[in-house]
């Protein structure tokens, strides 16, 4: 592992992993407690439409993904508030249309096709230094927003009805959360790819929730878990020559089931 | 003369096409202790949601303390009917109560010392101070309801709306709570939804019965008309605790 650190791309990969894990822990915790995992998946997949659009028009795919996922997140937010009962269906439709649009646009793009797989499954080893410099302020922005409005986000997540009654702008907070999800999603996409975004957003918070007594602690623990998953996954993928994104997710997945098993045994021994 | 605590004029409301409230008009004075009774699905909770601005009426106007419900938000306290949601949420009893101190004008600021003292007061009053660090999901249903009552009181309201505050608590807490509310009623208007007719007869000084339409009785008497409307079947009105009549003897009314 240590000899790998002499490579610039490996150092960048580690940094990207840490930065992404921090925003994952914060946003993922909010996504899990607000039960909007499906929306976050929809945002991530629909972002592919933005990548297609960017390649077709010839601007930065990352910018395309960011703009597209921001727009989609706002639409999904509006739908989920307006048509509560069938919002999951509409989100599923947008999810699929976003991806299909992306693929068609890439088909229509003349000339050499960039490696589409790297967006689907991530390319943490190919994250350039310039992307790190974009990730740092984005991470800071997410961290600061949640830090400043921590008690409002907690109230909105735990009991939106009461939060509304005491006068909090519940809808605005909800849309801010979705916007941050879109931003975080584009960052996570770099590391594990858009198909695996949901896993990195949900597995660490789900494990952390059982061992923490406040949303803030849940965020901190999830961030650390995310860092461990990405570092271990990265190391495994390097030494076994496996796809990094998938390896990171499998490390998280195995840990997830390990904790499930521990909880299961614990609960049984209580009853005995 | 003070502004009325509540003023409703010609309120109509329906979910999809099912009418829930029709032409509801009533006025409640400040300082009243109003009990709202009625059958399930009669529109009790909807009435409360209209007063809290959580839903908007199709027709008619709502005024709370002379203002539109959304403008009066920082002046009301609220206890929801259901307290069994989000039980896995990592939040302590104390943090739930502190939610009562949130307001639009103080967004983004830390909780102050005063906020914490207020939360301490109401937690002690509801007997939940020793459980302040317990996660909300590890409390029993009754304990959780006490925490939610504490949160409603922590808002320091001018009007307090309680949706079935004693649905899952024991008799002792119920009596304590109502004695406390009676004391609080000296400065705060209280509106309470309850199924317990006995509670109504002992504590409230104004009764409304709602089943799509609303009958309001300022003297706090439950009339046979209300009971008919509310339950649509003959009900034996037995007063628990203090021996007294709930229904006036025929000929005595008026």
Structure overview:
The complex is a heterodimer of chains A (272) and B (254). Chain A has 272 residues and is mostly helical. Chain A has a single domain, classed as Orthogonal Bundle (ABC transporter involved in vitamin B12 uptake, BtuC). Chain A has twelve helices and no strands. Chain A has helices at 8-33, 37-57, 61-82, 87-108, 117-121, 129-148, 150-158, 160-165, 170-192, 197-209, 215-240, 244-271. In chain A, helix 2 packs antiparallel against helix 10 (197-209) and helix 3 runs antiparallel to helix 4. Chain A is globular, with a radius of gyration of 19 Å. The N and C termini of chain A lie far apart (45 Å). In chain A, 49% of the residues are buried. The mean pLDDT of chain A is 91. Chain B has 254 residues and is α/β, with parallel strands linked by helices. Chain B has a single domain (6-43, 67-212, 221-231), classed as Rossmann fold (3-Layer(aba) Sandwich). Helix content of chain B is 28%, strand content 22%. In chain B, the strands form two sheets. Chain B has a six-stranded mixed sheet, sandwiched between helices. In chain B, strands 2-1-4 form a three-stranded antiparallel sheet. At the A-B interface, helix 7, helix 8 and helix 11 of A face helix 2 of B.
In the CATH classification, which architecture of chain A applies? Orthogonal Bundle
CATH class of chain A: Mainly Alpha
How many separate domains make up the residues of chain B?
A: 1
Q: Let me know the average pLDDT of chain A.
A: 91
User: Any low-confidence stretches of chain A, pLDDT <50, length ≥5?
Assistant: none
The largest contact between protein chains, plus residue counts on each side, is:
A-B, 26 and 31 residues
Highest-level CATH class of chain B: Alpha Beta
Structural class of chain B: alpha/beta
Q: How helix-rich are the residues of chain B, as a percent range? A: 25-40%
Based on DSSP secondary structure assignment, what is the total number of beta strands of chain B? Answer: 9
Question: What's the Cα radius of gyration of chain B?
Answer: 19 Å
């Amino acid at each position: 592992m240590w000899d790998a650190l002499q490579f610039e791309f490996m150092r960048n990969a580690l940094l990207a992993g840490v930065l992404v894990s921090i925003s994952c822990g914060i946003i993922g915790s909010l996504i899990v407690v607000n039960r909007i995992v499906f929306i976050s998946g929809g945002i991530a997949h629909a972002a592919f439409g933005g990548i297609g659009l960017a390649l077709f028009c010839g601007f930065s795919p990352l910018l395309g993904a960011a703009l597209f996922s921001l727009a989609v997140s706002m639409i999904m937010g509006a739908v989920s508030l307006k048509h509560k009962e069938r919002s999951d269906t509409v989100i599923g439709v947008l999810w699929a249309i976003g991806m299909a649009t992306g693929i068609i646009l890439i088909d229509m793009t003349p000339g050499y096709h960039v490696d589409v797989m790297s967006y689907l499954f991530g390319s943490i080893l190919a994250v350039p230094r310039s992307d790190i410099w974009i990730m740092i302020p984005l991470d800071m922005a997410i961290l600061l927003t949640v830090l400043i409005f921590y008690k409002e986000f907690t109230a909105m997540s735990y009991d939106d009805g009461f939060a509304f009654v005491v006068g909090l702008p519940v809808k605005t907070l909800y849309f801010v959360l979705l916007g941050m999800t879109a931003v975080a999603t584009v960052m996570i996409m770099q590391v594990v790819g858009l198909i695996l975004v949901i896993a990195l957003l949900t597995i660490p918070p789900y494990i952390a929730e059982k061992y923490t007594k406040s949303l803030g602690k849940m965020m901190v623990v999830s961030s650390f878990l995310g860092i461990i998953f990405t570092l271990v996954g990265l190391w495994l993928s390097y030494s076994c020559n496996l796809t990094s994104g998938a390896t990171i997710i499998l490390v998280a997945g195995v840990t997830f089931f390990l904790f499930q098993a521990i909880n299961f045994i614990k609960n049984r021994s209580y009853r005995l | 003369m003070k502004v009325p605590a509540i003023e409703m004029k010609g309120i109509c409301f329906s979910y999809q096409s099912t009418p829930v409230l029709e032409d509801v008009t009533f006025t409640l004075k400040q300082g009243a202790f109003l009990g709202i009774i009625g059958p399930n699905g009669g529109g009790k909770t909807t009435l409360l949601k209209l007063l809290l601005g959580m839903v908007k009426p199709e027709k008619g106007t709502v005024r709370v303390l002379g203002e539109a419900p959304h403008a009066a938000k920082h002046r009301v306290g609220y206890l929801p009917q259901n307290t069994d949601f989000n039980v896995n949420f990592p939040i302590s009893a104390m943090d739930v109560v502190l939610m009562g101190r949130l307001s639009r004008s103080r967004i983004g600021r830390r909780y102050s010392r005063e906020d914490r003292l207020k939360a301490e007061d109401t937690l002690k009053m509801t007997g939940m101070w020793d459980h302040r660090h317990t996660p909300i999901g590890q409390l029993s249903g009754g304990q959780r309801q006490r925490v939610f009552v504490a949160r409603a009181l922590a808002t320091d309201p001018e009007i307090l709306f309680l949706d079935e505050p004693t649905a899952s608590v024991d008799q002792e807490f119920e009596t304590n709570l109502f004695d406390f509310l009676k004391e609080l009623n000296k400065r705060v208007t209280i509106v309470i939804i309850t199924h317990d007719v006995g509670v109504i007869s002992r504590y409230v000084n104004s009764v409304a019965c709602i089943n799509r339409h609303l009958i309001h009785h300022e003297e706090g008497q439950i009339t046979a008309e209300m009971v008919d409307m509310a339950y649509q079947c003959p009900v034996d009105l037995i007063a628990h605790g203090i021996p007294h009549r709930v229904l006036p003897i025929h000929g005595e009314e008026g």
